[in-house]
């Protein structure tokens, strides 16, 4: 289902966003879900999101949007946030698996407008009926778009030979992204060239037992104990400290704050390796040192 969201006051524009951004939507079921903005980033008269109605995997949020939302209804959404921005590069290879096409659409519109060099590889079981397939096929940039049914038909040719000034923008189900990333890395691409957007938290691979630790709030000088099994966010909230939270699963970036000292045990899928040195997600990450100092 494709939703077009406008501000409550008709003539008002919505906050601007960059390609790759998502919003949180409070679904009628009460669950908050993240959806990539799939319309042009140059049009702030409305946000467009596309929702896959999948009874088998939906935990209720998407299903309630697909079945309980009707035209004219009011929905509460967050401002756009972006954990999947287009980096500077000479060339761009966009690779989508199924509904992972959504954040890549504003990217290709922006790249096309900027006369950048880009190509899209869209893997979808039904290329004839896939979301946005008609639009892509009938566009002025159709020669940049390549459809395939599955990775069994092969990886994008452009990934076979590494190119130092190309960025790979990858979005789709976890298994699909893992397979494409591994293929690219094995072909000689550097991991930093592969930019991904996960829609669900990545499988946790950390082996550290949850130990208690302290967080020091640099601005107030307060020290707060985080118990084993408690998140930094809940320890801060219990101490009456206001913080931003949305997904609480390490996926949206709402709770990220600057980390001034200590080493984080990062469990989010938002921060890049580079950013992890100076930031931490309060909802899910822990500490590898007895204490973390936060810019709060
Ligand atoms: S609240 Fe979404 S990453 Fe922490």
TrEMBL record:
Any one Pfam family match given in the protein's UniProt record, by short name: Fer2
Domain 2Fe-2S ferredoxin-type: start-end pairs: 213-296
Keyword annotations: 2Fe-2S, Flavoprotein, Iron, Iron-sulfur, Metal-binding, Oxidoreductase
Domain FAD-binding FR-type: 1-87
CDD domains tied to this protein: fer2, PDR_like
UniProt key word Iron-sulfur: yes
Domain of life: Bacteria
Listed PANTHER family: CARNITINE MONOOXYGENASE REDUCTASE SUBUNIT (PTHR47354:SF1), NADH OXIDOREDUCTASE HCR (PTHR47354)
Name of the protein described by the UniProt record: Ferredoxin:oxidoreductase FAD/NAD(P)-binding subunit
């Amino acid at each position: 289902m494709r939703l077009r969201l406008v501000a409550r006051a008709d003539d008002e524009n919505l906050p601007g966003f960059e390609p790759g951004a998502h919003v949180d939507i409070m679904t009628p079921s009460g669950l908050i879900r993240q959806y990539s903005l799939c319309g042009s980033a140059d049009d702030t008269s409305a946000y467009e999101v596309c929702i896959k109605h999948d009874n088998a995997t939906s935990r209720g949020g998407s299903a309630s949007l697909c079945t309980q939302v009707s035209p004219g209804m009011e929905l509460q959404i967050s401002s756009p946030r972006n954990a999947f921005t287009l980096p500077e590069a000479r060339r761009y290879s966009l690779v989508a698996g199924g509904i992972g096409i959504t954040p890549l659409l504003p990217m290709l519109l922006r790249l096309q407008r900027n006369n950048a060099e880009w190509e899209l590889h869209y893997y979808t079981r039904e290329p004839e009926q896939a979301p946005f397939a008609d639009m892509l096929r009938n566009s002025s940039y159709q020669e940049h778009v390549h459809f395939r049914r599955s990775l069994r038909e092969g990886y994008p040719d452009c990934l076979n030979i590494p190119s130092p000034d190309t960025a790979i923008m990858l979005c789709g189900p976890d298994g699909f992204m893992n397979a494409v990333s591994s293929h690219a890395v094995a072909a000689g691409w550097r991991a930093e060239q592969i930019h991904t957007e996960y829609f669900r938290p990545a499988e946790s691979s950390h082996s550290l037992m949850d130990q208690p630790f302290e967080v020091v709030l640099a601005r107030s000088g307060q020290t707060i104990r985080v118990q084993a099994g408690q998140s930094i966010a809940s320890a801060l909230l219990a101490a009456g400290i206001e913080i931003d939270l949305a997904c609480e699963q390490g996926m949206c970036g709402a709770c990220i704050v600057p980390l001034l000292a200590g080493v984080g045990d990062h469990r989010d899928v938002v921060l890049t390796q580079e950013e992890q040195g100076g930031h931490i997600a309060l909802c899910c990450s822990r500490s590898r040192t007895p204490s973390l100092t936060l810019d709060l």
